[in-house]
Amino acid sequence: MRLPVFSPKFTAIAALVGLINFNSVHARTATSEGDEAQITDPVEECTAYYYAPVTDALDGFPTIWQPASILSNDTEALNTWANISQSVPTNIYPHGDIYGDWNDTSYNVASDPDCWWTKSLCTTPKLSSLPADIASIPEPETMGYGFDDGPNCSHNAFYDYLLEQNQKATMFFIGSNVLDWPYEAMRAIDEGHEICAHTWSHHYMTGFSSEDAFAELYYKSCIQMKAIKLVLGVTPTCWRPPFGDVDDRIRAIAEGLGLQTIIWQYDSFDWEEQSGNITAAQVYANYDNFIAKAGNGTFDSEGSIMLTHELNNFTMQTAVTYYPKLKDAFKYLVPVGVALNKTQPYVETNYSLPTFSEYVAGTTTTNSSGSSNSTTSSGSSTSQSSSAIAALSHTMDSSLLAMIFLGIFVLAV
Ligand SMILES: [Zn+2]
């Protein structure tokens, strides 16, 4: 039996397994954000560590990497949900399951009553109370630069490179990953990247009940102290649905939590390479196609967003390889929030983003009080880009092993 190309169920599992990496036993005591950032051996980077603030708080979260539900003793969450649920439509039902299996659903894509992006690419909700998704960039000749699925444990070489380029990006972090790799998450915000939410466990959101979909976002990024807030001290106001799987029911829940929905227009399919369903060459072709469009004037009146990932060493290496080409093709590469002139990216006011004009004039970060719980600053990396790229290229990739194992399992069933 051959796996169908782009099987949603398989890709859901594949993406998740690629992220599960090392959350089992904490094998070492964490040092500090700065020390973590200095590690150049990807194997060492991805050795799980103990970080007391997270360990001490785990009882207040759903099980890491498992689909979220509201904890029965979490009265704050229950009260928040009771409040938000009043604005969530009850006539939009879950689609398929949380693994993206839609075989049993019959949905009228032509009329698209739910504005279900995954089926129709709809970004303007049918419910007039909801704002449109961010799918493009208002600034001409500009790319909204960002990466999904982090923080990745072996991202130091990639982040070193971004630091050397003075390039900031929007990082869509998964709650479970933030708790697995808190120092890596701290590095991102301390180096000026914008942090948006990417759910608790990275499943298909429209497959959840409304209450569980709320939990997926609540324990990721809500107005209470949850995963990102615990580690970074901030509460995001933006999110990206895994696999782009969003409809008006899920948008209403996100809106209730103050989260702006950010989608994309182009997909590099870098996330798919590890499944073996597409080749590296196809991913490069997708990048090349995006760059060609920038060259032929497609984005002259409105900028764009391409889906790319901090998922594994291939996706990060590809991002490094293509960065100079993107810089050449676009007039500006900026975080999405910067392109939107969203100078207050978090609920808390102690961090801010530069305006678009400030950013392109060279002010890529603004002063902040640095509210992450890190005890030391990451400082500036001393790694060189050449060593950074080399480090990416010779990493072990246990997620690949896990993929192979799981692929055999999926084939078997
Ligand atoms: Zn994702």
3D architecture notes:
- The protein is an alpha/beta fold.
- It is built from 18 helices and eleven strands.
- Helix 1 (8-20) runs antiparallel to helix 18, helix 7 (156-164) packs antiparallel against helix 17 and helix 10 (210-218) crosses helix 12.
- It starts with 7 loop residues before the first helix and ends with a helix.
- Mean pLDDT is 83; it is low at 1-25, 221-225 and 369-413.
- The site of zinc ion (ZN) has 6 residues, from strand 4.
- Residues 15, 148-149, 198, 202, 242 line the site of zinc ion.
- This is chitin deacetylase.
- It comes from Lentinula lateritia.
- It holds the Pfam family Polysacc_deac_1.
Return the string of H and E elements.
Answer: HEHHEHHHEEHEHHEHHEHEEHEHEHHHH
Helix content: 25-40%
Number-wise, the strands total 11
Oligomer: single chain
Q: Largest sheet, order of strands side by side?
A: 9-10-3-11
| Rg (CA only) | 20 Å
Estimate what percentage of residues fall within beta strands.
Answer: 5-15%
Report, as a whole number of angstroms, the end-to-end distance: 10 Å
Largest sheet: 4 strands, parallel
| Bound chemical compounds | zinc ion
Write down the overall geometry: globular
Mean pLDDT: 83
Summing up helix and strand content along with how strands pair, one would put the structural category as alpha/beta
Number of helices: 18
Question: Uncertain spans, ≥5 residues at pLDDT below 50?
Answer: 1-25, 221-225, 369-413
Domain NodB homology: 141-341
Keywords: Carbohydrate metabolism, Cell membrane, Cell wall biogenesis/degradation, Chitin degradation, Cobalt, Glycoprotein, GPI-anchor, Lipoprotein, Membrane, Polysaccharide degradation, Signal
Membrane topology: Lipid-anchor; GPI-anchor
Organism: Lentinula lateritia
